[in-house]
């Protein structure tokens, strides 16, 4: 197991490096574990130090014993024929395996490599950013086109009003008849 991601609730994710728990936990998968107050026979636990030199182990508890107020567990990998030679003290347990995801560890390991990081993180993130930029550009084009249509419509209405005002320059009385002396307008028109 390797690769630790701590969460606020103590949940950790580890990558499975061996096949000792197959078929229930596949090599190359990940296990999600969480510390609990009580561990029971049948629980799959992860224990041991998590350093560059040492890798924790996930095995099933097959028995437990009490000694001077401390609990010790005997563990065994599901594939292994015999139990682990050394008992595990309660203080060595990192957590109980809640569930596992087959083959996801291969993806996480690949993502740690430069090529994997570029392929799995940088390229998808770039595509999302470009997609958002494209959406902003398209939305801006729509807004600009709408403003142009509104401006053209306003200018058209204004020009029609001016034309109508020019056309209606003939002075008329209340009853629509030209006042005396302006009959000439009717002859010019």
TrEMBL record:
Its main location: membrane. The keyword Transmembrane helix applies. Its EC number is 3.4.21.89. InterPro entries: LexA/Signal_pep-like_sf, Peptidase_S26, Peptidase_S26B. GO terms for cellular component: membrane. GO terms for biological process: signal peptide processing. This is Signal peptidase I.
């Amino acid at each position: 197991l390797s690769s630790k991601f701590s969460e606020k609730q103590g949940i950790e994710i580890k990558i499975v490096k061996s096949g000792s728990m197959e078929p229930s936990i596949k090599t190359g998968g990940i296990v999600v574990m969480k510390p609990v107050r009580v561990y029971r026979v049948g629980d799959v636990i992860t224990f041991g130090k998590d350093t560059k030199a040492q890798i924790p182990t996930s095995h099933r508890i097959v028995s437990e014993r009490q000694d001077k107020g401390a609990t010790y567990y005997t563990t065994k990998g599901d594939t292994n024929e015999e139990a682990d030679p050394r008992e595990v003290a309660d203080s060595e347990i990192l957590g109980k395996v809640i569930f596992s995801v087959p083959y996801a560890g291969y993806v996480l390991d690949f993502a740690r490599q430069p090529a994997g990081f570029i392929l799995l993180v940088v390229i998808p993130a770039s595509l999302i950013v470009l997609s958002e930029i494209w959406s902003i550009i398209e939305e801006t084009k729509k807004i600009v086109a709408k403003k142009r249509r509104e401006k053209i419509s306003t200018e058209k209405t204004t020009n029609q009003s001016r034309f109508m005002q020019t056309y209606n320059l003939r002075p008329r009385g209340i009853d629509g008849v030209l006042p005396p002396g302006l009959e000439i307008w009717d002859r010019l028109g």
